[in-house]
Amino acid sequence: MYATNNNAVADDAEPTAFRKAEKKYKLYYDQDSKSSKKKKQPKQVDLSEVLDFKSIIDSYNQNAQLPPGIVPVSCDFDRPVFGLEKQPGFYFIPGALSVEEQCQWVRESLTSFPQPPNRTNHNAIYGPIEDLFVAAKEGRMLVEDEDAPTGLDDCGGSNACIGHGDGRRWRFYNEDIARSKAKTSKSIPATILLRKLRWSTLGLQFDWSKRNYNVSLPHNKIPDALCDLAKKLASPAMPVGEEFWPEGAIVNYFGPADTLGGHLDDMEVDWSKPIVSLSLGCKAIFLLGGKSREDPPLAMFLRSGDAVLMAGEARECFHGVPRIFTDKGNAEIAHLESHFVDEDDFLEYIRTSRININIRQVL
Ligand code: SIN
């Protein structure tokens, strides 16, 4: 599943227990602040029931005590791993990634992961787009070139073809050229396309229209470094003697009001293998429900660097992300801000964003 805007948590849906929790935590703005000239303020929400693995690990490290229902997982992993008594197959690894690793995966998520032949949500309208992050940095605009040959299929990203979809071609131009072309052609700034980037898919490509993997689509293998990381992180959840083979990954990009509605990830063949899910950027609330949407979900914070594993029974549990926090007091990204101090573009993006990379064995 991929991040969508606020409407993903539709207001007219059946009020299941999962839906009620989504509504409880989603971002609303204070009524008063909307009408005033002041910046809109997020409505206060009661976070007292949200499980906080950061304080859990702090007290565990001090006195080896855990709150009821949280269990330590014994494994060879070099950091504490926790499980939930009532949710077998769910694992939480607080601070699994170092700050350097977090920065590295933020960079990759914005520069190399959206590169063709990897697909993004923009493919459906514009075809493959190369170097979106660079184009945004350089203030370029994507312009529809109506004179270009039509009827081309998705090229999978050859150099000759900057973008084509719908039988039309789209190219990046500098702003002044784009402005003159814009009189007759459609155009959109790369900065807006970057902001509207919702997902990219690595390795075996997930086809959102069919909600399944399309193994015939052109694809690259998951990058080795991501593959190695996923294998290492998957180990606490792996059946004894078996190996995890990362074959596909979905990268979700969340802006301030974006949410990920309750869903199951059920298109992979072997559910005994975990989904390895990494959080980068602004803090979020994750809801872990049961096998029915009627089961009340457990809410927990996900911070930059945390990893979650869902295997076995947990693969059958509804889950989603109803909220990300982009305000200074709650985002908890000061460590990223100091690392990105000379990299303004990453800094600007991550200050109001969250990225989730979830890696799967598909076949
Ligand atoms: C997912 O469930 O697909 C992603 C969860 C997350 O964003 O942490």
Automatic annotation (TrEMBL):
Where is it found, in Gene Ontology cellular component terms? cytoplasm
Q: How is the cofactor bound?
A: Binds 1 Fe(2+) ion per subunit.
Highest rank taxon of the organism: Eukaryota
| GO aspect biological process, one term | oxidative RNA demethylation
Q: Where is the Fe2OG dioxygenase domain?
A: 245-363
Q: Which cofactor does it need?
A: Fe(2+)
Q: Which Pfam families match?
A: 2OG-FeII_Oxy_2
Keyword Glycoprotein set for record: no
| GO MF annotation: an example | ferrous iron binding
Q: Where does Fe cation bind?
A: H263, D265, H319
Q: Which keywords belong to this entry?
A: Dioxygenase, Iron, Metal-binding, Oxidoreductase
Q: What family is this?
A: Belongs to the alkB family.
Q: Quote the protein name from its UniProt record.
A: Fe2OG dioxygenase domain-containing protein
